[in-house]
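Researcher: Good morning. I'm working through a list of sequences from a screen, and I'd like to move beyond sequence-only analysis. For each chain I'm collecting a predicted structure so we can compare shapes side by side. This is the next one on the list. No need for commentary yet; just the structure.
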Amino acid sequence: MNKVNKLLKSLGETTELKKNVFSDYIAFRGIGNACNKRWLGNIVPADLLKLSVKEIVEIIVTLSESGIFYEKFPDKIETPNYGDKWGRLANYIEINNRAIAYMDKGCTCKGILSAIKLLPAIPPSAKSFANCIILSQIWQNIYGDAYEKGTFEENSLYGIRLNAPYSENIIDYSLKLSPEDQIKAFVDLAHFRGIKVGFRHVISADQIKIADKNGDIQFDWKNRKHEELYIKECVKLMNLGFECMFIDSAKHIGGYDMKNYTGVGALPEYRQMQYILHEIRKHSHKTDISFVGEKSSDDFERYKNMGLNAGTDYITGDNFDAVRDLSEKLKYMRDYAPGVEVTNDNYEGGLSYEQKLNRINSALFGYYLASDKLPSFMQTDDLFPLRYDTNTHHLMMTNPSYSTDGTALSHWENLFAKDDGREYNRRAGELFAYGVER
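Model: Good morning. Structure tokens for this chain:
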């Protein structure tokens, strides 16, 4: 039985699917020849998060790009094929799956199910380049995994535990379904939607622990066994269907530009990281992995030769002509390119909706030929605006509930902007409607 049907059965649902007529009617469509590419726009996340997983799977199958409605989810799903170097052109959209997880009685869980529920609202990939979801959390964090904390109490995602079960923030451990199968169900549903998938993680040694029966061990890049464990953990995720790694602090690997380094602890050496990325590709038997480096964008040859495909924080989308000119300048660099940022994980607010929409426009259309497009980087907030008194970085550093009555639904309703957030999402959807045709 495929993983999606196994997930439905474990939730007490049947595997027979019925067409969701309402979603079929209201879905956004790509313009022109991309009219078969569909997603739900003009929404706030609670519209989907409040639904059952079964209802979401039915919506996903209803929006099938092929036009075929599957009464049972198909057994064989493959990633959308954009070639081995797809990461050089992709739009990366980071989804904080902990922030949208199920919060109940002080506990946080089921973030992977919430990520599944948002899939119908993520625009599918364009004709010429992929959209890729980056999940903010897969592994346990070291500051209080599975627990809601106060609005200003640290519970940072910038600290991970290896050699441990996957995060309780994202897995539903009450199900009789393995964490791996839950993750694989998400991956298969994303691929069915025509979307690639990746994960974020840190590489600063003092922000990584290794779980051990005698207590956590501090990670050490000079310890060969630790290096091998890191490779093994990454390969496991690639074997579950992930195809992208977003590497925090990648700019500083090998001691580069350390005056601007804000992580804690040592980083891998340059040649060591070359070896690690090579080993991940080798042992996962994948030639199409996209390695993305945070802020790895001011020495193009350095990062290309490291094995990266894209780097963030080189140019914002504020100036459309500047983005298009950079795309033209770098069009012969087919292995690696720096990217256009709408916002990043350190974003603390301050941009108007108009500024963000302008940046999305530049990211989606800032080129002369679609084959020369620069990669782009967005956050949850860039598609689904957060409430006025929080921001992307705050939710990476803390894990508060915004529920007014203690329920998960109330948290989802109050985490995001409401009427203005819905209107913003509609306008962003209109941009993607033209973008998916490219």
